[in-house]
Specification:
By secondary structure, the protein is an alpha+beta fold. It is about 35% helix and about 20% strand. It has helices spanning about 15-35, 55-60, 100-110, 110-125, and strands at about 5-10, 45-50, 90-95, 130-135. A 4-stranded antiparallel beta sheet has the order 2-3-1-4. The longest helix has 19 residues, at about 15-35. About 15% of the residues are buried.
Length: about 140
């Protein structure tokens, strides 16, 4: 059974959302791939918060995310308040099983892991970084016949 590890990143306040995203894609992700060369996750995907300035809130009918009513750099939220969103990106690493995660953790506890942590500290707030583990239990929805 596959297992996903979710990493929630909160950018430093002096870093723009655009710079944060480009840094994560062009610097941090290649570093992760380099460090995990021997035991890479099956996949690693980064997803970013959509900002009000994109107009997505207006298109989705999210009143609290309307360009006319919110800070352009505020996150678009469909339910709740933009202040509730305390992260800027979520990374999902997928592993084939618990043993695979343990192999990657051994890498993270070494010099390569220290390089990743130091790199994250240049762009994200370490105290706000959260890491959660999720089992991938696929559920099928039965269609009516």
């Amino acid at each position: 059974m596959t297992v996903s590890v979710l990493c929630f990143y909160s950018r430093r306040p002096e870093i723009t959302p655009e710079h944060f995203q480009s840094y994560m894609e062009e610097t941090h992700l290649p570093l992760i791939k380099e460090v995990f060369e021997m035991h890479p996750p099956q996949s690693y995907r980064l997803r970013y918060v959509i900002r009000v300035k994109t107009g997505a809130g207006d298109r989705l009918g999210a009143v609290t995310s309307s360009r006319a009513k919110a800070d352009p750099d505020a996150p678009v939220v469909l339910v709740g308040s933009p202040q509730d969103m305390d992260w800027d990106a979520v990374g999902e690493m997928v592993f084939r099983d618990e043993l695979h995660i343990q192999q990657c953790l051994s890498v993270m506890n070494g010099p390569g892991g220290q390089r990743i942590k130091e790199d994250e500290e240049t762009i994200a707030i370490p105290e706000k970084t959260r890491i959660d583990e999720q089992e991938d239990k696929r559920h099928r929805v039965a269609s009516e016949e």
